[in-house]
Amino acid sequence: MRWPHVFAQEGDVALSRGSWLRSAAEPYASLAEAELADRLISRAQPVPTAAPSQSLHSQAAQAGSALLEVDQVSIDYVTDERVLRATHHVSLQVHAAERFVLLGASGCGKSTLLKAMAGFVPVSEGAIRLAGQQVQGPGPDRVMVFQEFDQLPPWKTVRENVMFPLLASRRCSKAEARERADLYLDKVGLSRFADVHPHQLSGGMKQRVAIARALAMHPQVLLMDEPFAALDALTRRRMQEELLALWEELRFTLVFVTHSIEEALVVGSRVAILSPHPGRLRAEINAHAFGLASGGSAEFEAAHQRIHRLLFDEDRVGGPSTETASTSPHQSTAQALRRVA
Predict the structure, then answer these.
(1) Half-sphere exposure of 59 toward its Cβ, with a 13 Å CA cutoff?
(2) Could you read off the pLDDT of 59-71 as tens digits, one per residue?
């Protein structure tokens, strides 16, 4: 899986969809392309640093509106033989500093919807808006972390990997990029590994570098597509702990895709449940009451079972469930689960 494309802003040196800046957040297509990018970076003058995402968060909060809006979005994959609908009329809102989880079985379109939020996949119907502006394509205001471990150019050190998107997008000078890289490597516990190369890291450590690189960009929204699915159970648990600790400190806006009910309840403050073929929004659940220590509790197990019924039982009985779930300390049992028509 390749990293998201990041395109230049107005005033940058001549760049296009096929040019080197696309590698600001993905591995290069070739070593020659990488060398060209490094030469261009060395000659480029830095542009002013983009405003941190917190300023946009405060604007959205003052306006009382969602930071990210998905409005009646349908996404089709078109082939020579047929049109395959991945999602159908999905609407949801993600507010600033929220941990929003997209949960569903394989084939429900959750990763496709996340890629549409990132701007990689066009929508067939509806619109996706970030801070009121329609998403037209990829950009550094949305950074994505993928499941695969090969997200890091192997010829760059850990520090250089974190610095590179900042330099390629010209959001920082080289000194500022190094300072910010060191800051976020420290936050993910990898300061001692700043000068090593990716092949010297474990899978979990590589994911920490990818998260540090994403957060160093100060994105308005951090998008994560099953980032811990390929890790062993113990490392996955540790990464969940570290992600939540980072969120407690930085309060970034997170959209997180998973097919694990337990992970959805632990990581998310709100969970959107998608039905498959095509993906429709079946329900939303508030999960503020749950955390890493909730596993095994009666309330956690009850919520787990209710979500399981929403995901699978409806398909057997052929109709919508009337099940309700209480997952928030601030809401009654009937209010915690909002049915979506």
Answers:
(1) 12
(2) 444 446 899 999 9
Whether 34 shows a pLDDT value over 70: the answer reads no
The rounded distance, in Å, linking the Cα atoms of 222 and 219 is 6
Helix (H) or strand (E) run with residue 63 in it = helix 53-63
CB 179 within 8 A of CB 136: no
Pairwise CA distance, residues 161 & 166, whole Å: 10
Q: Give the mean pLDDT of 305-334.
A: 55
Helices marked H in 169-260: 174-187, 203-216, 233-250
Distance CA 76, CA 74 (A): 7
pLDDT band of 314, cuts 50, 70, 90: low
Task: List the beta bridge partners of residue 201.
Answer: none
Which position has the token pair 């405003």?
51
Q: Which two tokens stand for residue 227?
A: 């980032």
Amino acid at 29: A
What does the alpha-carbon distance between residue 229 and residue 90 come to, in Å, rounded to a whole number?
25
